[in-house]
Design brief:
By secondary structure, the chain is mainly β. The chain contains no helices and eleven strands.
């Protein structure tokens, strides 16, 4: 049973920063997963934010966070991170991490396992 647990969310003023963490346990070795971050704002569909491949060799971001966010992973700690800077009110959402064992057709789809989410609220 693969478990993903997010942490690090909270309330921050516009222009501030947060670092989200996602700890993974169970299943195969963490280094064998492609890891992604998604978010869902109230009344909106869940959207892809960022992903990182095996051995931190490749990263991919959605346009709205490109240049403001950095995804990273520490395979020794079974943890993936999302550093978010210059936060905007429109970044307010529940943030989810997800994992998959194959890249598949794209970075943003076909994730197999999901966490419960952590709330990020950006005040103006």
């Amino acid at each position: 049973q693969v478990q993903l647990v997010e942490s690090g969310g909270g309330l921050v003023q516009a222009g501030g920063s947060l670092r989200l963490s996602c700890a993974v346990s169970g299943g195969r070795s963490f280094s064998g997963y492609v890891m992604g971050w998604f978010r869902q704002a109230p009344g909106k569909d869940r959207e892809f934010v960022a992903a990182i491949g095996w051995n931190s060799g490749a990263t991919y971001y959605t346009g709205s966070v490109q240049g403001r966010s950095t995804i990273s992973r520490d395979d020794a700690k079974n943890t993936v991170y999302l550093q978010m800077n210059s936060l905007k009110p429109e970044d307010t959402a529940v943030y989810y991490c997800a994992s998959k064992t194959r890249l598949g057709s794209s970075w943003s789809t076909e994730y197999e396992y999901w966490g419960q989410g952590t709330q990020v609220t950006v005040s103006s």
